[in-house]
Write a structure and sequence with these properties.
The protein is mainly alpha-helical and 237 residues long. The protein has 10 helices and 5 strands; from the N terminus they run H-H-H-H-E-E-E-E-E-H-H-H-H-H-H. The protein has a 3-stranded antiparallel β-sheet with strand order 1-2-5, with no helix packed on it. The protein has a two-stranded antiparallel ribbon with strand order 3-4.
Amino acid sequence: MKQIAPTTIKYMFTVLSASINQAIRNNLVTNNPCSDVATPKISRNAIKTFSVEELKQFLAQAKEHYLYPSFLILTTTGIRHGECLALKWKDINFDTGILTIATQIIESRTYGNIIDTSKTECSIRKIPISSDIIDILSQYKKADNDWIAGTKNNTFVSPRNFNRTYYMLLERAGLKHLKLHGIRHSVATLLIEGNVDLKSVSLLLSHSTEGFTARTYIHPSQSTKKNAMDKISDLLI
């Protein structure tokens, strides 16, 4: 018998409970037996991230590809890949080193790939980029293409093709298979481990709360955890 995924079980439980509650409001039943059942818990597997060395290895492999500027932005800012695909060269102020995020590319089953405003109000933001990155990006800027991740026809690259290229580069670099969103997790973790305060990281990633950033995106490395334990040991022993 095929095993049902935990997420599916929780969804079925939620729908069933809501349906019974509606039946109660319609005077069809008097109680909801789901109220006496604990909500199914979904265990969250540890999310894997790239180390600094692995990110460098990936960028070295991507350097000769025309999508290198986009991958460079992803690995140095932690923005969403949909936001990265929607970027145009005009969104970068090369004088001030400010990157403006206001739109994203989303995949729609009905309309295909479309340009949409960013997820939330806090997603519309300005991100400072280091002068070193600005210098590199300026070398790749093309006058005949509006998009940073642009095709030969001056259109944006589809998320599917971008993902395909990403996995191809991972394989060529000999790196582990990690979803594209893993880069965002990696950047957040590296920022925290680099002693950047949680509030700044949360703002850069456009999260509504610092707690969400800590729960979802921060994945301390073994060396970081060991250093933390060593500090406790130094204090107590």
